Amino acid sequence: MKRAIVLGVSHAQLDLIRYLKQAGWWVIGCSYRHEGRGIPLVDQFECIDIRDEAALLRLAEVVKPDLVYSVGSDFAMRSVAHVAARCGLPTFFPRETADLLAEKSEVRALLNSKNLSPVNYLAASHESETAQWNCYPAVVKPVDSQGQRGVSLVRSRGELIQAFHKAHGNSRQEKVIVEEFLPGPEVSVNCLVVDGQVVVVTVSDRLVANELGFGIPRGHVFPSVFCRDKTLVETKALAAHSIDALGVRNGPVYFQMKLTRQGPRVIEIAPRLDGCFLWKLIETTGSVDLLDATVRLLCGKKLPNLTLPLTMESQCLVFWLAQSGNVFRRQDYNAPDEAGAREFFYDDGEHVRSTNGISEKVGYCVCPAVAVEKWVRPAA
Question: What is the full DSSP assignment across 151-175?
Fold first, then answer.
């Protein structure tokens, strides 16, 4: 029986764990605490921090896995690259690429140097280094975090100072990046690269709930409503050029972009499948199964047909959101009759765990976009 080590057992890893189990794999899940929706699904759980590469290597020496992987987690990608390489297992990219993509200011510097969606930015480790910044509004965030942790929109020097300390406290490197705010619709771009060629590009609208916290995702619509015609061509080209600049030869690459008047601009890049279940949304439209294709590619198996259909009914994935610390009750959240795929991340009575400290995902549902207005908000 083939063995896989999956880094993480939270809701982001559920589909990967299920996929591997259905394919007959023995699955070992790792997390720094005995908590997560994936624990009842794995064959073996190990209480190991997914960033503890030495402990993960010791585990790999014992269990002799055929695969080490993770989805939806920036924190896991460096460990995946390191452990897989040390164990002679398949991996999509070297540790150096994982290190680069884990540091937002390094990515921004690379893109700007190649004139790929240039954006004004400043990297700072100390508050005094931000004194030269005078471009507002601006976005302040940790250079090495995810899930909207420590991210703020600021409009003045006073707000920037407060936001700097918030972001600094959420950075393991104690380093912050300040970027010019980019107006325009936000999109998610999922790519699959095979032998240096981008063979799949999907663009979906990223709906945000800024009234709850800056950049908090409320849902996604696929295919994109805002990214069409010339803008779609430019967005796909930017993704392909960025992938080439990063030297990624195989695997999934996820982008967040803004569609500005000056053209598409990259906000974030990650060498992984997204953390918002977009593979489920994309599959629902009759398109490719990116999760299946990713695992097949990693394992050296033949890939299925990856051609996107010419016409697709617009589908929407909407998250149910709750404040950190709230007691979860499923009866508070409804879905329309048209809903297909759905998932709750908590059982009744559990407290909503804090990721960004503001508003957390407690579940999602996929349905035709026309049905969304019926259920965007939880029941009163």
Answer: -EEE-SHHHHHHHHHHHHHT-TT--
